[in-house]
Amino acid sequence: MGVSVRGRVHRNRARGDVTNRKIAQVLAEIGDILEIKGESAFRVAAYRNAARSLEVLPEGARERYRAGGVKALRQIPGVGASIAAKIEELLTTGRLAYYEQIKKTIPAVTLDLTRIPGVGPKTAQKLSDTLGVKSIADLERAIDTPLAARHFRPRTRERIKTGIGLLRGLSGRVILPVAEPIARELVEALRGCPGVLKVDPVGSLRRMRETVGDIDIVCATENARRAIECFASHPSVREVLAKGDAKATVVHADGVQVDLEIVPREEYGSLLQHFTGSKQHNVALRTWGVEHGFSISEHGIKRGGRLVRFDDEREVYRFLGMEWIPPELREDQGEIEAALRHALPRLIEERDIAGDLHGHSTWSDGREAIEAVVRAAIERGYAYIAVTDHSRGLGVAHGLDAARVAERHAEVEAVRRKYGAKIRLLEGVEVDIRADGRLDLPDAVLERMDVVIASIHSAFGQTREQLTRRLVGAIENLHVDILGHPSGRLLGERDEYGVEWDEVFRAAARHGTALEINAFPNRLDLKDTLAREARRRGARLVIDTDFHEARHLDLMRYGVAVARRAWLGKDDVVNAQPWRELAAWLRERGRGARR
Ligand code: DGT
Ligand code: CA
Ligand code: CA
Ligand code: ZN
Questions:
Q1: Backbone angles phi, psi at 241, to 5 degrees
Q2: How far is the CA of 210 from the centre of ligand 2 (A)?
Q3: How far is the C-alpha of 23 from the C-alpha of 569, rounded, in Å?
Q4: Residue ID of nearest Cα to ligand 1 atom 1
Q5: Mean confidence (pLDDT) of the chain
Q6: Those residues with Cβ within 8 angstroms of residue 382's Cβ, 6 or more apart along the chain or in another chain
Q7: Mutational test site, ligand 1, from 279, 331, 565, max ligand atoms within 8 Å of CB
Q8: Structural domains present in the chain
Q9: How far is the CA of 329 from the centre of ligand 4 (A)?
């Protein structure tokens, strides 16, 4: 097995402060450096794939390593022997010699500039050569100067400015798969702390917002001092910013700030409600209270001079004559009125999901074979699963043309023979909507598919009218069942493109085409507000993970969270329906859903 002597001594003893995110950052940066140095695209991609994989890994690499050593690391998708060894070095020593050495071979500023979305290694190099900038802040000042205008076209300068804005926009905020494990770890630690009675994550995390500024935790305990100590001395805490009798603020090793509030147990319900927010919801609730004779605070509710306290959150809303409001809806978007009328929707839940209709196998840019994905889907108890590899026009990773669709069919059939009794495997494609609005595969191919997703992957810079035309055109195509990631945004990387959503939603409703809520945590596209609007206009929605490996099926929960924040129920979502109904929908879409 080739365990080094040092490896044996340190066997599986991982340091507490090396998190998945940190490892992912190092690996991604190595990928960037290799690209700047002009190394093979294959090596660059290997590091980036591994980084992505770690970012969405549901459990800590550290725990994995402790339990199963370097062998367990190699089971992470996209992690081979060489990268596993590097992760081991990081986990055990907190450093990586290879990374430190390779970093010295390129100017630090070049690497820094490539962090700006839309700025690749070549542009970064040119920026530092021609403008002499030393940092992103430098660049922000330099980009509007005549010197910059001489060297860079207006479009490029615009792109760079947008990129800097995006970097700022997300900076400080993190996506849910980063925030959740941190919260879980600290909540667990507090649960195990002597005297602790109740602990809950609150704030934007409890509301399942797509990004989280800081993590908030509330705790009721018989021993506040002890709980504060358990929290502040946790091995994954990098820095303690504040520590009092009833609260503490720390910075986690991942750079995320975490607030802990110790609250009296007899007021736990009120405080849970208060700290869950949102601020807007709380303001609206209190304003309503004032108008109706209730004085609502984080300590309880006063009515006619008498303070009533609540140890249970449900009682707070009940006392006001309201239904309990799920945290995802607490954004002051009509939830208070609906709760008063007892007319809140029954929100969709993850267990309502019967299958996943968007994902990729090794036939395009996925990292696992169809069979591996099908087995994972069976394990999740799905009734159906689609494999929708990319069409060729995308330019990336050998997409499908008509001939390869036919080749793939043989494999689909073989997997069906093996697993057909347990799950329906749908044969599909994600066909590219080209810049001219035409689809990237001939109708003759599309009509043989069980399910077709159409998505835009290029020419984002077109006008509003052009982009709207492209989307509506795809929706109107008889062979298209689903419009994939309709708004095109990538959190922290690319804004959604400007589109006449009204027209898109109306067309989708008219043609029965489903609009996707893509569950990939840096997409979440459609976002909550747009998904809600789409449903209002009569469109149906589908929640897809867009998996590129079997493990990604677990990302469904983030899509479900968006759907809940969009007020959607089970009936609004096509893949929350049993097979018979899904098949009926596909048939109605003009295709013989044969299976
Ligand atoms: P974030 O952290 O930006 O993702 O969003 P939240 O909603 O977690 O906001 P945060 O951490 O500032 O506050 C947590 C909750 O505390 C918030 O949702 C509602 C409650 N809260 C109510 N009033 C106030 C206030 O005046 N200041 C703060 N910081 N929180 C308040
Ligand atoms: Ca917060
Ligand atoms: Ca906070
Ligand atoms: Zn896809």
A1: -85, -35
A2: 12
A3: 38
A4: 213
A5: 91
A6: 353, 354, 355, 356, 423
A7: 279
A8: 20-170 (1.10.150.110), 174-263 (3.30.460.10), 277-340 (3.30.210.10), 350-588 (3.20.20.140)
A9: 29
CA 16 to chain CA centroid, nearest Å: 25
Ligand 1 mutation target, pool 170, 216, 325, most atoms within 8 A of CB:
216
Render pLDDT for 374-404 as a digit per residue (tens, 0 to 9): 999 999 999 999 999 999 875 555 788 889 9
Q: Whose CA is nearest to atom 19 of ligand 1?
A: 277
Inter-CA distances, 255 with 67, 214, 239, 250, 467, Å: 26, 10, 9, 10, 38
67 CB burial (10 A radius; 0-12, 13-18, 19+): exposed
Residues in the chain: 595
Q: Quick check: helix, strand or coil at residue 263?
A: coil
- pLDDT recorded at residue 269: 97
Centre of ligand 3 to C-alpha 249, Å, is: 9
Question: Crossing angle of helices 20-36/121-131, nearest 10°?
Answer: 70
Q: Is residue 463's pLDDT more than 60?
A: yes
Average pLDDT over residues 13-26: 82
- The dihedral sign for the CA sequence 466, 467, 473, 474: positive
Give every strand in the sheet of 451-455, ordered side by side: 355-356, 384-390, 424-432, 451-455, 482-483, 514-518, 540-544
| Of residues 481, 473, 508, the one with CA closest to residue 590 | 481
Residue with CA closest to ligand 1 atom 20: 275
Q: Which ligand is nearest to the CA of 282?
A: 1
The CA distances from residue 280 to 259, 276, 277, 284, 585, in Å, are 20, 11, 7, 6, 39
What residues are paired with 573 via a beta bridge?
A: 541
Atom of ligand 1 nearest to the CA of 209: 4
For residue 137, give every residue at least 6 positions away whose Cβ sits within 8 Å of its Cβ, in sequence order, or none. Answer: none
157 Cβ contact partners less than 8 Å away, ≥ 6 residues apart: 143, 144, 148, 149
Nearest CA to ligand 1 atom 8: 203
Ligand 1 pocket, mutate which of 173, 178, 204, 208 (most atoms under 8 A from CB) = 204
Ligand 1: atom nearest CA of 259 is 11
pTM above 0.85, yes or no: no
Distance, in Å, from the CA atom of 462 to the CA atom of 312, rounded to the nearest integer, reads: 52
What is the DSSP track for 409-427? HHHHHHHHHHHTTT-EEEE
**180 ligand 1 Cβ < 6 A:** no
CA 434, 451, 541, 174: dihedral to nearest 10 degrees?
-70
Q: Is the CB of 201 under 6 A from ligand 1?
A: no
At 19 the pLDDT is 86
| Ligand 2 center from residue 389 Cα (angstroms) | 38
Residue 276 alpha carbon to ligand 2 centre in Å: 9
The pair of three-digit structure tokens given for residue 189, joined into one six-digit string: 């630690």
> Does residue 204 line the site of ligand 1, with CB under 6 A?
yes
The reply to whether ligand 1 has any atom less than 6 angstroms from the CB of 214 is: yes
More reliable by pLDDT, 196 or 594:
196
Cβ pair 569, 425 in contact under 8 A: no
The 3-state secondary structure of 439-454 reads: ECCCHHHHCCCCEEEE
N-term to C-term CA, the chain: 47
